[in-house]
Design brief:
By secondary structure, the protein is of the alpha/beta class. The chain folds into two domains: about 140 residues, Rossmann fold, CATH 3.40.50.620; about 160 residues, Rossmann fold (3-Layer(aba) Sandwich), CATH 3.40.50.620. Helices cover about 40% and strands about 20% of the residues. Strand 6, helix 5 and strand 7 form a beta-alpha-beta unit. Helix 3 packs across helix 4 and helix 9 runs parallel beside helix 11. The chain is elongated, with a radius of gyration of 22 Å. The two termini are about 15 Å apart.
């Protein structure tokens, strides 16, 4: 985590939200961060005018706030502890209000779903917060309120990959959890045998190519080799052979096979046309993985310099 000593947890009073709160409290105690909680009432900030044929007045912001306060009290009773919980209740668009509130935080923590029973994918608000937030975002799957039992650092050798590995090392060391550093790669021949001179001179092309990717992965992690060695991290490469499934499918399959309960990956703020149509690799992992997700954001130069200091 960076040195902005605040963790924000967004609550909607769902079961997944409860686990997000417990996870946020755990991380705040460990890091010495201040914990702030927020609940957003999804309603227009202006006073709506009721339809002509609707004979009853619409609820006011005061009515909605009072109802949310009652929900909060019921939510507190279900926590089974005496730890104080102060929640800032606001009205507005949830994704915008949450990310604005967490702009200067070290991390935003929230549940993956507001709907009970969601075991795959994330809700629309959670997905929007991953996309919009300036800070790291931890999406907590229901039932994962305690220490993580297996962590996968998903990297692509870009500039955000090193912070991904560093965050993963800190969490794995704290929770004494196994750590896998994994890179997904594409076989240039799409799983088919090479042809021509390549087939004649290198009959084991696929095995050699995989070995070269593994060597590249270890080379990338060399500056962190001491820390990775101390926690006995494992290096893994995941191959995908199907053009249209992409790298995300290989990473999701790896997460499923290893039963990792936290995937750490880098995300970017800017989209392009391809992301709009198909989604970036990170977004597809967030959507399809069945574990909690820590989305690491690239920090601006000033914040990075302060963190290094």
């Amino acid at each position: 985590m960076n040195d902005r000593r605040t963790i924000v947890v967004a609550l909607d009073f769902s079961p997944s939200s409860r686990d997000a709160l417990l996870q946020a409290r755990r991380l705040a105690r460990w890091s010495g961060a201040t914990l702030r909680a927020i609940h957003i009432i999804d309603a227009p900030t202006y006073t709506p005018v009721p339809p002509v044929l609707f004979p009853w007045p619409l609820p006011t912001h005061t009515d909605l706030t009072e109802a949310a306060t009652e929900q909060l009290e019921e939510f507190k009773r279900g926590l089974d502890d005496d730890e104080p919980l102060e929640v800032d209740i606001r009205v507005g668009c949830p994704a915008k209000e949450i990310t604005d509130y967490a702009r200067d935080a070290a991390m935003l923590v929230m549940g993956t779903h507001s709907v009970e029973g969601g075991q795959k994918g994330v809700g629309t608000t959670a997905a929007a917060c991953v996309r919009r937030a300036d800070c790291n975002v931890l999406l907590v799957r229901r039932g994962q309120s305690g220490p993580f039992r297996g962590i996968a650092a998903c990297i692509d050798f870009s500039s955000i990959s090193r912070p991904v590995v560093e965050e993963s090392i800190r969490l794995a060391a704290r929770d004494e959890a196994p750590l896998w550093v994994v890179h997904a790669y594409h076989d240039p021949w799409g799983g088919r045998q090479p042809r021509g001179a390549l087939a004649d001179n290198m009959p084991d092309f696929r095995a050699q190519y995989r070995t070269a990717v593994e060597s590249r992965l270890r080379e990338f992690c060399e500056p962190m080799a001491h820390e990775l060695g101390a926690i006995k991290a494992a290096y893994r490469v995941a191959e995908h052979n199907h053009r249209w499934e992409g790298f995300a499918s290989a990473l999701v399959q790896f997460l499923h096979e290893t039963q990792a309960d936290l995937a750490v990956l880098g995300t970017r703020r800017n989209w392009n046309a391809r992301d709009f149509l198909m989604g970036s690799t990170a977004e597809r992992v967030v959507r399809d993985a069945r574990c909690s997700i820590l989305a690491v954001k690239r920090q601006p130069p000033q914040a990075s310099a302060e963190t290094a200091a």
